[in-house]
Amino acid sequence: MAAAEAADTQLMLGIGLIDPSNQIKNDHLSTVEKDTNGEVLWVWCYPSTTAPLRNLLLRKCCLTDENKLLHPFVFGQYRRTWFYMTTIEVPDSSVLKKVTHFSIVLTAKDFNPEKYAAFTRILCRMYLKHGSPVKMMESYIAVLTKGICQSEENGSFLSKDFDARKAYLAGSIKDIVSQFGMETVILHTALMLKKRIVVYHPKIEAVQEFTRTLPALVWHRQDWSILHSFVHLSADELEALQMCPGYIAGFVHLEVSNRSDLYDVFVNLAESEITIAPLAKEAMTMGKLHKEMGQLIVQSAEDPEKSNSQVIQDISLKTKEIFTNLAPFSEVSGDGGKLVLNFEALKQRRFPPATENFLYHLAAAEQMLKI
């Protein structure tokens, strides 16, 4: 038990406070004044953070956004570091008399939005009450070392209440199938082949809800490291993204649709459209195998008796059948005992061209081709 808690508490990396200097309450007036020359400040963090990560987090903070829309909670990943940011409006009753809004951000090694949303909300309440990072720091250290912080006034938090598997299952495959129907199989195929999927919607909440769900279509991998749910068209972020062999990347700027170098599959969530990039069409050719998978996905998702996790299980079982198809054409290589594809044996089986093509590209995605 103690070992499990210790392992869990090693997941957090840091905490930061972002406070907008351009949103100051006038001590003598009841109105909010905004200094047009002001900047959003990185006020405090523990431990110290790098300048590139600090700049990225400021970019993600909605208080720096020109449209001034308040996003209560956003999350994403940058170079294997997850960030979770809660932003709130400061009520007049708070001790923070000169601040109208602030954001608290946690960085961590793990994907678990619900866990860090709950913890950042507690930290926000502490800052509202005390107006100083000291109490936040105490709670952060408590969770870091013991996995728990308790407060009658601000609420209690227990790390072990937030299982990673629950985070993986929090999205709704049923909602995706309701929107895209049989075309959901395009997303499944792209994920199986470890392709690059870009998702666009003007609302970050819609982007994050959709993208976080997609890795569940390939549940056998249980790999959420491919998720980059909140990406800007900034050079540093795109460079980091393009270092990944396959990914799911979420954007709120439509200009990304013109960046065909970034995707194999483009999802315009706002228009319910899925587009396969020209260079990916050969690998993504659909056949009987895909039709069967698509029908199973739709049939399972539309069953009102089935929960989201049961739909994921159905897709996972069908996916395992595909790997079973590949097994007879796999052999142990001479160097290191790794499984590799016997392409001649696959060709002799005389599958339909689309099936053979898919199995070949699946073997490539699983690094089963002889080099």
CATH architecture annotation of the largest domain? 2-Layer Sandwich
In sequence order, what are the helices and strands, one letter per element?
A: HEEEEHEEEHHEEHHHEHEHEEEHHEEHH
Q: Which consecutive residue ranges, at least 5 long each, have pLDDT under 50?
A: 1-7, 21-38
Strand content of the residues, in percent? 15-25%
Query: How many individual helices?
Result: 13
What is the CATH topology assignment of the largest domain?
Beta-Lactamase
Helix content: 25-40%
Which structural class do the helices and strands define?
alpha+beta
Distance between the termini: 45 Å
CATH class of the largest domain: Alpha Beta
What is the general shape?
elongated
**How many structural domains can be distinguished in the coordinates?**
2
Mean pLDDT: 87
Strand order of the largest sheet: 4-1-7-6-5
Largest sheet properties? 5 strands, antiparallel
Strand segment tally: 16
Rg result: 23 Å
Family: Belongs to the DENND10 family.
Protein name: UDENN domain-containing protein
Subcellular location: Late endosome
GO biological process, one term: regulation of early endosome to late endosome transport
